[in-house]
Design goal:
With about 280 residues, the protein is an alpha/beta fold. The protein has a single domain, classed as TIM Barrel (Alpha-Beta Barrel). Helix content is about 40%, strand content about 10%. The protein contains twelve helices and eight strands. It has an eight-stranded parallel beta sheet, with helices on both faces. The chain is globular and about 45 Å long. It starts with a strand and ends in a 6-residue tail after the last helix.
Length: about 280
């Protein structure tokens, strides 16, 4: 079965060449380079990975993501993050796609807090013209703005990173309902990375299984993707990479066709043009 990890953050060990921001969020074990990711993916039978710009370490400095994606086109898809308040960002996005083969952009609200913002719209338009994927990183409070943006760009392929970050507890149902309401936008895809990040338990995170299944069944497996939250010692400290994957290969009651789509088929179509096998 084809397995593609759609959510990996990478950190260069060379901090002179790729300097971090002030007060960066560091992986506790420091083993999170592109080479470390490659070793883990190969050992687990994972064929490809999306390199999501590590904003908590580099902010808008995308050089390590760009360089790593360009050097590893056979198994990675680069996803940058750009400043929606910078009027040059659409041109930078075009350069990243042309010179580094970037396959997507992670979209964030503008400095004033708005997702439905002219600077964000300009980046989404550039992404549509370039034929790349937009990942949205927002919380539940921005769901209505996301809905409005999706209505403006019905032909743009969009992925909802972490599905608004649902958490086990009293707010789970409200967040889940917001995710399910967005399903009506058929160009939107759900990234099911929230099972371990939203769980109050360790593996197999059963308190988030029902929420995950509701999202998957609402969107359909052809609009859902799996991602491991690399490096797991930072982002899912209670759940290892192998356990994260096992939740989807063994623990969730998925049909074979659903596993095939969620673990690789949908991602292969979105970021790799169906070329991974």
């Amino acid at each position: 079965m084809l397995i593609i990890d759609t959510h990996a953050h990478i950190y260069s060990p060379d901090e002179k060449k790729y300097p971090p921001i002030e007060k960066p969020l560091r992986p506790p074990r420091g083993k999170a380079s592109i080479e470390d990711l490659r070793k883990q993916t190969q050992s687990a039978g994972v064929r490809g990975a999306c390199l999501i710009q590590t904003s908590t370490f580099y902010r808008f400095d995308n050089r390590y993501t760009c360089d790593s994606a360009k050097a590893n086109p056979d198994w990675t898809a680069g996803v940058c993050t750009l400043d929606p308040d910078n009027p040059k960002s659409p041109d930078i996005l075009r350069q990243f796609v042309r010179d580094f083969g970037m396959k997507g952009m992670r979209s964030i609200p503008a400095a004033d807090g708005r997702l439905n913002h002219p600077g964000v719209e300009a980046l989404w338009k550039a992404a549509l013209d370039l034929g790349i994927v937009i990942n949205i990183l927002i919380g539940r409070n921005k769901a209505d703005e996301a809905d409005a943006m999706l209505g403006k760009f019905p032909k743009l392929r969009v992925v909802l990173d972490h599905c608004l970050n649902p958490q086990a507890g009293p707010e789970l149902d409200a967040t889940l309902m917001a995710v399910l309401r967005l399903e009506r936008r058929k160009n939107l895809h759900a990234k099911l990375t929230f099972v371990p990040t939203g769980s109050k338990e360790g593996y197999p995170c059963r308190d988030m299984h029902d929420a995950c299944l509701k999202v998957l069944r609402a969107y359909g497996a052809e609009r859902c993707v799996w991602g491991r939250d690399f490096p797991n010692d930072l982002w899912t400290p209670k759940v290892s990479f192998e356990e994260h994957l096992k939740i989807f290969t063994h623990d969730l009651p998925l049909k074979p066709a659903e596993r095939t789509a969620v673990l690789g088929g949908t991602a292969n179509r979105l970021w790799f043009g169906g070329k991974l096998g």
